[in-house]
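Support case: user asked for a sample of complex input and structure output to validate their parser. Sending the pair below.
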Amino acid sequence: MSSKKKTILKVIILGDSGVGKTSLMQQFVNRKFSQQYKATIGADFLTKELVIDNKNVTIQLWDTAGQERFQSLGVAFYRGADCCVLVYDVTNNKSYDNVVSWKDEFLVQANIKNPETFPFILIGNKIDVEENKRQINNKKAQQLCAQLGNIPYFETSAKEAVNIDQAFDVVARNALQQEESLDFGDDYTDAINIHLDGESSTCGC
Amino acid sequence: MSAEKSVASLVKIPVFLSGDTESYELARDDCLGERSSSSVNNDLNSILKQVTKDSAPFSSKLNFPEEKDDECEDMQLFLNRRKHFFILSSAGKPIYSMHGSEDIIVGYMGLIQTIVSYFHLEETAEAGIGTGDLRSFKNGDVCFTFENRYPIILMGVSNMQETDVESTQQLDFLYNYLVTTLSKPHINRVFRQRESFDFRKLLGHADVACLNNICTDLANSSNLGLIIGGLPCLKVKRHVRVKLEQILLRYTSPSVLYGLLVGPKGKLITVMRPRRHTLHTADLQLLFSMIFNTNTFKTSSTDRPEFQVNEEFWVPICLPKFNSNGFLYAFIQFWQIQRDDLLEKLGIGSADRTIDPDATKIGLILLSPYKDQFYQVRDISKRIIDRIMESSTICRELYLSMITNTPPEGVCPLVSDFIFKSKKHAQYFLMKRDDEGEHEHMLKYVYSRLHSAVVTNTLVSPQKNIKFNGENILQRRMITFDSSNFIKYTKWKVCSSQSQKSFNPTACIQSSPQKSDIVTGFVISTPSFELYIVHKGGDIDKNILAQTSKKIIKWCLKNEGRLFVSGGAVF
């Protein structure tokens, strides 16, 4: 089982309510877009298989609710993520401003050991809107990426399927790298031997 | 009617069952025992007359196909399974699922993690402590049970009318299997290093095969030991057991902590143990699952894998109840009793080739605390086996016990199957008249329902405390009836699939009653023993059942030394 199974990558998608997290995932996984807005309740799960450098991987996408009233899922939800996707809406200043706090929130809740090397990706969504509605330009977004530790940045449109695959390809690659970075081959059968000197606690009956 | 109909159509086999359930509880003055044979008969008969309708009838689903593990991609099949087991990491990554392809299960694993964590948080917030995990919930007939053993989460799904207690025990057993193969510190360490760790990397093919087998057993109630909580025992004459103990005691050594002599299907023959320790039943069940539920110790050359003889195995194993922090090393060897030369020496004649070769093999398991003492332990094993094989008395008795399992004349002429479990020994003895073939798992399901009734009753009605001192068989063994005294009598009407040419569920429902069979389940539970009787093949009179059960109890108590291992070779 272990050898033929695909690598599973846990990817968390974070961002303010309404920036298009669910739409991005739907477009990526199902090639669908819906105009209707439905708030995600609590959480949603989608999976997608990809081939990265001849390796089969399954991305387990954890779509979170942006609304604050569902935030109680926190700790457990972020636990053991391989990559975190931060999403903002290019037509919404506030969602851009909140990216930093989403990242901080994630780092605290997920208890990440090496925050400097943990893979984040920034996505500016809704670039299909008219230029005059756009509030965050590419330059400003790049500045944010630099500030967050030179994380990769993609501008996407979930509605018109622009740049989605490219963004998630990088997500998968970075997650895979993270997943493989800590493979240890210790001989577990050499784990603590039972020494009978301290026998008092060993009997189960 | 409509309920049965939908059940039958769901499982798509010609089944019709009626859950004719009657339940009896011992009234305050009731007792079981031969005060004088007529008064006891009256007692039991009066119990059996006190029929009260069961307010919570048993499942009517008695006929169902066996359910095996799969990695099927069909979502509808996946959703229609009657039993599921999921094991995942606390990060929501899959570790194991009994059914479904990886594509199907990956999403569910996330969902399970979220549900478990949500309740963990809620309860933590409300109670101020993290003890209020979600244990189970029901949706219609389907029961979902959870075990949160950070960093591992387990969930079971069942629509087999099992109680929470049973389902939780099943999850516990699966969790402990993981501990058995890896030990608790190792599991904790890999997740402490990284919560996103893919635990499947640590599970070998044999581990997955064993998990599959355990789940298949649990889904089909096929492991009686797990159902009724005990170890099976081989019936061996008392003086032969004593001889075996004497042999084992000649070879005690600091290299060996425990020794187990086992017959086919993990039936205990005798044990060797230090005075200060006994091994926990659950640990032995795990050990036997590892040995008897996998092909690890079997030959792969033939179509039908069988236990290798003349092969020695040295396997690290963590026994969670004994010590979940480290490994013992198990030396395992099997050998064949049914050999022409040996049988000739014993004057038994030639070997019967129709018998399953594994049904006449004996296994010796020696558990050592030291990894580097393989050669010492092997030497001990060789000497023990040589001594056993030298003794014609022992070999003859072991061989005869393995090939015959019929009750003595007159003890239970009318029932097909019974199990007598001695609570003191945590062992049980199964008497089987015939192999029931396709009905086998159905009968085992009846045992599991009877056990469930015992467990549920014990949990809900703890008020009676009656003692009875009987004569005859009970002169020296006082049978005490208290809170756990319990009798249950249940009948199922089962439509035999053989009697139906067409696989149309409605055809079966309309079929005449003559074409159906009646399966009767009967259990008596006292503080010292449990007796389970399953009768197939027509209706059985309650009085006859009562008489039979008394005879069986009398016989089992009289033959306790033959049926069970008590104490073993203690050094």
